[in-house]
Amino acid sequence: MSQDTKSATELLKNAPLNVTTEQAIVGAVIAKLREARGMTQKDVVEKMETSESAWSRVEKGDTSLSVVEFNRLTKILGISSDEILKLVDESKVALIAKGVDVKSTGAAKDWKGSSVAGGLTSTGMLPVYGTLLFGLVGGVIGAGISVYKTLTDEQDKGK
User: Has residue 56 got a pLDDT over 90?
Assistant: First the structure.
């Protein structure tokens, strides 16, 4: 075995089995918060004044929100940016503890494109995005979502 082949083999042997991006985690957290608020994607689309396809890309982690859009979203969901980012951080820590390699740059679509995903899966890595990521994040932040839902329900009753 050549030195190059051996090095590549060693790298793959020590590679994480699952990979996602911070952007995808943010999208999954936002989607879970939206659901906890009892809102559909269409509800958020109307209030954010964006298209359904654009919003879908945000929740899938394919694109990110500007600071202005993020601020508007916090008002729509009735939760502070600090709380959203805390849930994202907690999700990231828990995913890393479960063996998921969280990339700090790049969109989820960069990891799930046919050539990239094919390359990752052929090396034994599984891109974690979409429903799989949504389920993992939901499990991680479930308690936080329950508290948030209770608080927003109480706020709604007080109106």
Answer: yes
